Amino acid sequence: MRKCIVNTDDADVVKVLWGLGLECIPVLKSDRVSAPICRHSDVLYQKINSSAMIISSCQKRNLPAIKAAGYDVCIFDGLAEGYRTECALNFIINDSAVIHNPKTSADVDKIGRLKNLKRIKVRQGYTKCSTLCLSDSAYITDDDGIYRALKQNGFDCLKISKGIVALEGYNYGFIGGASVNLSDGRVLFFGDIPDKEEKGRVCSFLSAHNIQPLFIPGKQLTDLGSALIL
């Protein structure tokens, strides 16, 4: 059975993940980030590639499962509550570039495995939270700056409306945190998109990239911090 590290506070999402054949390992509650995102994997973990990962020091208890899945792990001790200090691991890596806000992200130039990748700068510190990564070349985001940066650098990107994702404690959440790419040709959304036109645009974009969407009917689309597939 494949494993994933996920915020297990939402029983509906956990049930669906188990039903999809994923063993759910809880994200450990952290005091290194703001309370509403204290169990969000997308701020506490950063997968560099299929064999390397950075994790916040507050997540050490999950080290055995991560190492058993074949990852070399670097421990990061620089997270602290607040926008500028809790976004350090919240950047996007694909096969050609690192997309990040250099004012809030960790120093990516010090990560040897990323040295040959292009740097694409954006203003949004919650870069990974704000973006659903479908592949190395296709993305969905509600952030204007990320959308422009991706398009200008030759990536396919769909821009969706802000406010369709809920996140308790904030006015709204992010599409990247409200979904997970299962890496098997499917994306699971943590709820449903009530607006039929918006949902149709998302489904059409996914279809164009040969990806099947999985929604949870009757549930508000909710930002849980995505999930880390091991």
Secondary-structure blueprint of this entry?
Layout: E1 2-6, H1 11-19, E2 22-26, H2 41-44, E3 45-49, E4 52-56, H3 63-68, E5 72-76, H4 83-86, E6 92-93, E7 97-100, E8 118-121, E9 131-133, E10 138-141, H5 144-152, E11 156-159, E12 179-181, E13 186-189, H6 196-208, E14 212-214, E15 227-229
CATH topology category name = L-arginine/glycine Amidinotransferase, Chain A
Overall 3D shape: globular
Tell me which CATH architecture applies here.
Answer: 5-stranded Propeller
SSE series = EHEHEEHEHEEEEEHEEEHEE
* C-alpha end-to-end distance: 10 Å
C-alpha Rg (nearest Å): 16 Å
**Uncertain spans, ≥5 residues at pLDDT below 50?**
none
Can you offer a commentary on this structure?
This protein has 230 residues and is of the alpha/beta class. It has a single domain (2-229), classed as L-arginine/glycine Amidinotransferase, Chain A, CATH 3.75.10. It has helices at residues 11-19, 41-44, 63-68, 83-86, 144-152, 196-208, and strands at residues 2-6, 22-26, 45-49, 52-56, 72-76, 92-93, 97-100, 118-121, 131-133, 138-141, 156-159, 179-181, 186-189, 212-214, 227-229. The chain has a three-stranded mixed beta sheet with strand order 2-1-15. It has a three-stranded mixed beta sheet with strand order 3-4-5. Strand 1, helix 1 (11-19) and strand 2 form a beta-alpha-beta unit. It is globular.
